């Protein structure tokens, strides 16, 4: 390629990425930068002797109540992710194997919660799980329990509600990964002596891991910032970080504190995810190291090649 | 030699569509048989029934005298090389080849030794720790072969082994595969739509159409004595003419071909006077003589024609002839027709034995 040619190529390339860069910068980076800036500013009327920018963070990190809520948010988000992964994997397999009409119908059913507002779907759970709700009546009718149980305003209810809202993201990413696996791989494994279960476990499951990872990332980060579902199903006692942020910003009008909480939520979310993937990387690396004990014949071949 | 694989009367239909229609054949120990046919003829379905991926509605598959119809694929001990190789992308080459051995719970030392053997066989021992993605198409195919034979299968199935390779590599791999297969002496069933591949690899060829086996025989037999028009068209090229039988006997058939005059053909049973037949002549069997050439030998058909078109193709020259209103194609090796020019009168000559007769209706 000539120099002018490559220059032209570079220019058109820059033009091409300029638009997405601009959109990304204006609508994504700028608000985050603003949030950061805001979190370091000091709220009006809160001038104190040591009221510098980091003061808010220090106070938040020393606040047991705040840390408890952060811990609950992380714990329930992880539980939601785990439950989604376990419950949605079989569903994804059905979706990936279905064809034509059946698949379209399954997708419609899965996407339904996304088309309705999260608040509406969550209120559906109130009807199901309430004191006089469907589940309690059914269990009483069957004689399993003799008086209504408290199924709402606890952590289980939050996880149940979150799993329902989030499952579509898990199913879509896992099903996409499963669908891209060549069906001949399973046949090859079977012909080489693998039982159906063994072929799944050794051939299909490992190849679906990238999709599972994406699904977990989506579900986890969306759960971390969930607002309506934990608010409605958990009640006022079991708050999530997002509820605290809302309270600070909208009710107490303490914007810097709200911004600092949001920044901390972002850091915790990426931190937990970063730790999880680092652990995964470490395991792969260890396995690679173990495998690097190359068989003798391969080494002989290598030397022969040189 | 005894039959190693016996496939008997396989039938399979989906609704009204009959995929397999009494498919019956057998493979002797160490023999290579090729199912040849156009796409949708049922050849791949037959392979999948043998492998155990599809159940036929009736019929049976026997390997070494033992029926295997009721066995799941993993219990059949059949090595398969898939059209797209189906190498496991998340495993190294070593693990790919070791997969079948580990499924058989062989001790690690044996696994290593046999993977080593298999990889050395395909000359890719140095690639053991690579991932399939790092290999070229031809190398991936060799690994697929190594993986299939490492389990020491009782039968080897090759599904369209060359269709994923470019034309040049295809011929190279065809020779390579034949070279690998010969010493293994393993009963092999190959499926392909390419007649050249089939004839190059197989000891016997079974031509399939619409779920049926039309003809089964050595490549030479199928080529020189096609059972019907379909086989003749599918295996090699032919000049196809219409004719009327004048006289049929054990010595030969005499017939009248409109525009070409009377021709003598190979004997064909059950033909009577005035039967309408299709006459087939392979283009490479037709020789061209200058119009004035003297001497007529017995056992030859001579047809006067004009040279209409000459196409030089390097390894052969394709001559299009006009004999009356009939078109004939004759292939000449090298420069034998240099002296002839377009429009020249010529004489097309071919042996009586190279004139095949197929009754009309038996398409």
Automatic annotation (TrEMBL), chain A:
PROSITE patterns: ABC_TM1. Residues 70-276 form the ABC transmembrane type-1 domain. Pfam families: BPD_transp_1 (PF00528). It is found in: Cell membrane. The keyword Cell division does not apply. GO terms for biological process: transmembrane transport. Its main location: membrane. CDD domains: TM_PBP2. The keyword ATP-binding does not apply. Keywords: Cell membrane, Membrane, Transmembrane, Transmembrane helix, Transport. It is a multi-pass membrane protein. The chain crosses the membrane at residues 12-33, 65-89, 101-119, 157-181, 217-238, 258-279. GO terms for cellular component: plasma membrane. Belongs to the binding-protein-dependent transport system permease family. CysTW subfamily. This is Polyamine ABC transporter permease. It comes from Reyranella soli. The lineage of its organism: Bacteria, Pseudomonadati, Pseudomonadota, Alphaproteobacteria, Hyphomicrobiales.
UniProtKB/TrEMBL annotation, chain B:
Keywords: ATP-binding, Nucleotide-binding, Transport. The keyword ATP-binding applies. PROSITE patterns: ABC_TRANSPORTER_1, ABC_TRANSPORTER_2. One of its GO terms (cellular component) is ATP-binding cassette (ABC) transporter complex. Residues 5-235 form the ABC transporter domain. InterPro entries: AAA+_ATPase, ABC_SmlMolc_Importer, ABC_transporter-like_ATP-bd, ABC_transporter-like_CS, Mo/tungstate-bd_C_term_dom, P-loop_NTPase, Transp-assoc_OB_typ2. It comes from the Bacteria. It holds the Pfam family ABC_tran. One of its GO terms (biological process) is quaternary ammonium group transport. GO terms for molecular function: ATP binding; ATP hydrolysis activity; transmembrane transporter activity. Belongs to the ABC transporter superfamily. This is ABC transporter ATP-binding protein.
């Amino acid at each position: 390629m000539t120099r002018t040619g490559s220059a032209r190529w570079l220019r058109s390339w820059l033009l091409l990425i300029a638009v997405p860069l601009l959109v990304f910068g204006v609508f994504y980076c700028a608000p985050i930068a603003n949030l950061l800036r805001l979190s370091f500013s000091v709220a009006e009327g809160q001038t104190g002797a040591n009221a510098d920018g980091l003061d808010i963070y220090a106070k938040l990190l020393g606040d047991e109540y705040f840390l408890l809520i952060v811990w609950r948010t992380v714990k329930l988000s992880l539980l939601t992710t785990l439950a989604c992964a376990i419950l949605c994997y079989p569903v994804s397999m059905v979706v990936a194997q279905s064809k034509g009409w059946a698949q379209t119908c399954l997708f419609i059913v899965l996407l339904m919660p996304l088309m309705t507002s999260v608040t509406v779907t969550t209120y559906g759970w109130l009807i199901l799980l309430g004191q006089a709700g469907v589940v309690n009546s059914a269990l009483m009718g069957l004689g399993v329990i003799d008086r209504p149980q408290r199924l709402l305003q606890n952590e289980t209810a939050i996880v149940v509600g979150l799993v329902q809202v989030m499952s579509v993201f898990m199913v879509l990413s896992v099903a996409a990964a499963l669908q891209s696996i060549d069906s001949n791989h399973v046949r090859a494994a079977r012909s080489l002596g693998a039982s159906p279960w063994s072929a799944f476990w050794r051939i299909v499951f490992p190849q679906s891991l990238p999709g599972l990872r994406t699904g977990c990332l989506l579900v986890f980060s969306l759960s971390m910032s969930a607002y309506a579902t934990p608010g409605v199903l958990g009640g006022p006692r079991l708050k999530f970080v997002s509820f605290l942020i809302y309270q600070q910003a909208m009710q107490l009008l303490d914007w810097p504190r709200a911004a600092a909480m949001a920044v901390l939520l972002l850091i915790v979310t990426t931190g937990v995810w970063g730790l999880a993937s680092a652990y995964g990387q470490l395991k792969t690396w260890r396995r690679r190291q173990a495998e690097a004990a190359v068989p003798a014949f391969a080494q002989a071949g290598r030397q022969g090649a040189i | 030699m005894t039959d190693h694989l016996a496939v008997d009367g396989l039938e399979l239909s989906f609704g009204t569509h009959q995929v397999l229609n009494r498919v019956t054949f057998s493979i002797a120990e160490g023999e290579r048989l090729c199912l040849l046919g156009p796409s949708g003829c049922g050849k791949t379905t037959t392979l999948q029934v043998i492998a155990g991926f599809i159940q036929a509605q009736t019929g049976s598959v026997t390997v070494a005298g033992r029926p295997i119809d009721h066995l799941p694929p993993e219990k059949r001990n059949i090595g398969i090389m898939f059209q797209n190789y189906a190498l496991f992308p998340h495993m190294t080459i070593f693990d790919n080849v070791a997969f079948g051995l580990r499924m058989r719970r062989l001790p690690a030392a044996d696994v290593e030794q046999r993977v080593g053997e298999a990889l050395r066989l395909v000359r890719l021992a140095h690639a053991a720790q690579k991932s399939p993605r790092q290999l070229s198409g031809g190398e991936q195919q060799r690994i697929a072969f190594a993986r299939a034979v490492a389990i020491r299968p009782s039968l080897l199935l090759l599904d369209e082994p060359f269709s994923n390779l470019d034309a040049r590599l295809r011929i190279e791999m065809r020779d390579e595969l034949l070279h690998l297969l010969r010493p293994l002496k393993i009963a092999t069933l190959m499926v392909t739509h390419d007649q050249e591949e089939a004839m190059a690899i197989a000891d016997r060829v079974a031509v399939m159409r619409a779920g049926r086996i039309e003809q089964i025989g050595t490549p030479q037999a199928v080529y020189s004595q096609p059972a019907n028009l379909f086989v003749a068209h599918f295996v090699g090229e032919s000049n196809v003419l219409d004719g009327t039988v004048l006289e049929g006997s054990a010595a030969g058939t005499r017939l009248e071909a409109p525009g070409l005059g009377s021709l003598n053909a190979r004997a064909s049973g059950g033909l009577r006077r005035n039967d309408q037949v299709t006459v087939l002549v392979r283009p490479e069997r037709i020789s061209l003589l200058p119009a004035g050439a003297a001497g007529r030998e017995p056992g030859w058909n001579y047809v006067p024609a004009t040279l209409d078109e000459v196409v030089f193709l390097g390894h052969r020259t394709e001559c299009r002839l006009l004999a009356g209103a009939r078109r004939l194609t004759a292939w000449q090796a090298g420069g034998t027709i240099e002296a002839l020019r377009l429009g020249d009168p010529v004489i097309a000559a071919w042996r009586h034995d190279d004139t095949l007769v197929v009754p009309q209706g038996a398409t």
